[in-house]
Amino acid sequence: MGEPDIAPEGKVDALVIGGGLIGCAAAWHLGRAGASVLLLEAGDLNRGASGQNAGSLHFQIERRFLENGEALAEQAARVVALNNLAIEDWRGLEDALDRDLHIHMSGGLMVAETAEQARLLEAKAAREQSYGLSTRLVDGDEARSIAPYLSDAVLAASHAPDEGHADPRSLTPAFAEAAAAAGAAIALRASVTAIEPRAGGFDIDYEQGGRGHRVRTDRMLVAAGVWTPEICRLANLHMPLFPVALQMNVSERAAPFMPHLIQHVGARLSMKQAHAGNVLVGGGWPSRLRRRDGSFDLAARPDLRPENLAPNLAVAARLVPELAELNLIRTWTGKTAVSADQLPIAGEVPSMPGFWVAGGGSAFTLGPTLARLVAEEMGGERQDALQVVSPARFEHLNSFMG
Amino acid sequence: MAEAHEMDVAIVGGGPAGLNAALVLAGAGASVSVIDEQARPGGQILRQPPTGFAVTDWLTGRPYTGLKRDLAAFEDSGATWRGGRSVLSIQRAPEGARREDSGGAGAFDLVTAGGEGAATYRARHVLVAGGCQDLAVPFPGWTLPGAMTVGGLQAFVKSQRIVPGGPVLLAGTHPLMLVLAEQLLEAGARIAGVVFAQGRARFAGRLGRGLLGAASGAGNLLAGAEAMARLVRSGVDVRFGDPLTGLLGRDRVEAARFASGEVVPCGLVGTGYGFVPQAELVRQAGANVRPAGRAGGWAAAVDSGFRTSVPGLYAAGETVGVAGAEAARLRGRIAGGVIADALGRRPVGDMAKARSDLAKVERFADLLDRIADPRPYFPALPAETFACRCEDVSAGEIENAIAAGAGTADAVKLRTRCGMGVCQGRNCEPTLLRLLAAEGCKDDPGFGARFPARPVRIGDLID
Amino acid sequence: MRIGQEEERGPRISLVVDGRDVACHAGESIAAVLLEAGVTHFRTSRTGTPRAPWCNMGTCGECYVRIDGRRRRACLVAAQRGMEVVTDG
Ligand SMILES: Cc1cc2nc3c(=O)[nH]c(=O)nc-3n(C[C@H](O)[C@H](O)[C@H](O)COP(=O)(O)OP(=O)(O)OC[C@H]3O[C@@H](n4cnc5c(N)ncnc54)[C@H](O)[C@@H]3O)c2cc1C
Ligand SMILES: Cc1cc2nc3c(=O)[nH]c(=O)nc-3n(C[C@H](O)[C@H](O)[C@H](O)COP(=O)(O)OP(=O)(O)OC[C@H]3O[C@@H](n4cnc5c(N)ncnc54)[C@H](O)[C@@H]3O)c2cc1C
Ligand code: FES
Which atom of ligand 1 is least distant from the CA of A47? Predict the structure, then answer.
């Protein structure tokens, strides 16, 4: 996978920008559907959020949607329909890609430690059920019978049988290899420098190996994670995705004892034991983006916020006391994109036909599904499921962009 | 985590560099703490026996006299010893915590962990004098029990006063093997051989020429030459020009195989291919590092005052480049003086002389480094041999990842888990960079350094 | 093999290693005590191979054992009376 097999001034049916999970998965679907595809990746595959995330497959409504009022919670509930699709997609991925992706979907528990938190869980479960997601409320004892490693601090929990985790390090390369096998060309260390819309398509300039290249395409997808707004600017578009910096902790390996995904309804926490035995503890604790020249430096690794280590690990060990005896071997930081309303953005930009974006939110869990739906749309089939996350909801921002 | 303990200067590492810096600073009236994960001060060359031991004739040779004097002076200085604590990170303290009078430099928080839990120290200036570690060189059989680094084995002999097995074979390129062989002999151990990969001419020729050129290092060099003569007289098989190719054994080392085809039965092996700086704390704090030299690894990049690129953060001793104990002493002394200056205090001692002595010692160190240069003698790495011993990642898996497009250390790590284990990449990084360079991916910046610099019990970070 | 005279070492104590009593001297590192007691298998690697101390200075992690319930680097921990050590834990 070096130089793509595209002649200068060549033309492809579909061009994908970004070699993360979404870009690689979309390239695979587009290639399978018979399109000629070029994927441009500025660095190495999987070097963005897709290679740095916690690997949680969370299908319950996330805590972050519950802490900012009714309206957001109701809006978030509509994503649950997408979560149902994602469950099916994840169940079929290892077969479709014909390899072990360390997908474990043995259930997840979102726990409550207080009566007030338990009420929040109830409201959440009601919403989920109305959108067809099967979560079940259990009391502390039942939670402990499902997950005997949980402590007495757990008062109640909601159990989602399909939740779990997968290996972020395997997924993107697997999509990329499948895409290549389906005929997609993948250009590494190829960075997009200009996008010029023209009748019925786009001319894209990119740089690779110190040389400039140009390629023409009918349809394009921007799946460049935190860099997506930058790329949209090249096409004179606003895209309200914002970089946020997170930090994750990982313990040494331990014998398997925690088969579930554990989250907390009242505190930032996600925790699971990865396939190699290491326990990953995170859940949205911020690290800090570097700043340079009055802006955020997206090239730099975010700085750890040591003051966030203890509170994050403390909640985790309160729920799972065994964790305290394990050694922390690494804490890492990564950045990911969040939209203005916290939902993903995926779909065609109404004011610029032929221009799709996909990203934002928990796009490890939803990434395979968003990529599939977007690729199917690019192939000409409208996808109703994408309506709730369509960039159309932000079109007012682009109504001034002549 | 407990409340921050405050001080003018925190020194990480109580080896020759850290102790000398502490002596200068304590002498100048600054409040200084030396934090070290070893229980007792001295660093690697003077790894002291446990407190309850009363070893007569401990390390009596000439190279140790000055160092032992430093150690005694340190015990009487006003500096605080905080042994048995690993430093996990050095971070800028939050804005409000910085003091006006720190000369533009920042205050730092050092997160540490020891037997009794975690503690955070706050210091106006920090000196990292973390020393070095043996370069990890993989070869078939290197993970078998009974296979050790030469430095690690030596620490058992001089500090723990044990020889954990035998007969003992030493192999590699580094002259420290001679020092260790003598210590083993004195301890009454059976020595199966001392086998240098490089030819005798390369070794002895350079030694001879160096003697003429680098007078101040002559003490050490003579010690090396004398050691060799004594070993040979005692019937130890000291050989040259036969690189180690692998170790044999099922559940532990039983024999060593050499390029000549010879198989030497042995039960304990020390391999020595040189040393690489421990600079991860400096790197983690965001300061610049540079490629350390022939053996590989990264050294803290410092100016002539041992200042890193982060104001208020200094590095000395082997953290800035491997050059032996004498250089470490002098560097520590100079760095201590520079920090005393920054605190507005008068350092004691003749800094100009220290600088001119250091120049001489470093010239000699470079000679030693050339003699020990491991690069031509790295054992072949068959596909099934582990390059990463924490995660059991084989050289073949790494080569496949590179062939599949992973062109950087981070990309290979992501694909293979190489570097994701408890050593945090310290041991496999040089090998990985070597494998990358062989495939044309040169000048890779490596893994970078992450919190924590040492594994730490999660419970300790919470309490 | 312990070097030198018995009286040069610290007070005699005993520990429990994998359920059996092991005599040693106070202050010796747990790594040294285990090796002298004939233990060569400190931990088992991911693919099932036995491991024992390698760097003896705290940087490699090959000597991890459980000491009084905690996973610690045996080369950095000094023996104290009555400690309980479990290898391969
Ligand atoms: C620490 C952390 C933990 C997370 N945990 C979870 C979790 O548990 N569950 C979950 O569902 N989600 C999680 N997420 C979010 C999830 O990782 C992301 O939403 C998802 O990976 C986004 O994938 P992507 O393909 O959109 O973007 P990315 O993976 O960021 O890929 C974008 C790619 O675009 C490339 N690119 C950038 N500029 C250009 C250019 N000019 N030309 C060409 N290419 C370019 C980049 O190099 C990059 O490879 C987490 C994120 C982080 C940071
Ligand atoms: C195992 C070993 C044995 C050696 N034996 C000899 C010898 O016999 N003769 C010889 O000439 N040279 C020897 N060397 C080289 C020797 O290190 C130097 O000559 C000299 O000791 C360097 O002095 P220093 O002050 O720079 O570092 P050191 O003496 O190595 O001191 C550094 C100190 O920092 C501590 N430290 C490092 N990182 C941390 C952290 N994160 N937290 C807390 N503490 C930390 C270490 O425990 C150590 O005590 C040896 C090196 C090694 C690695
Ligand atoms: S032997 Fe390497 S950490 Fe103990």
Answer: 49
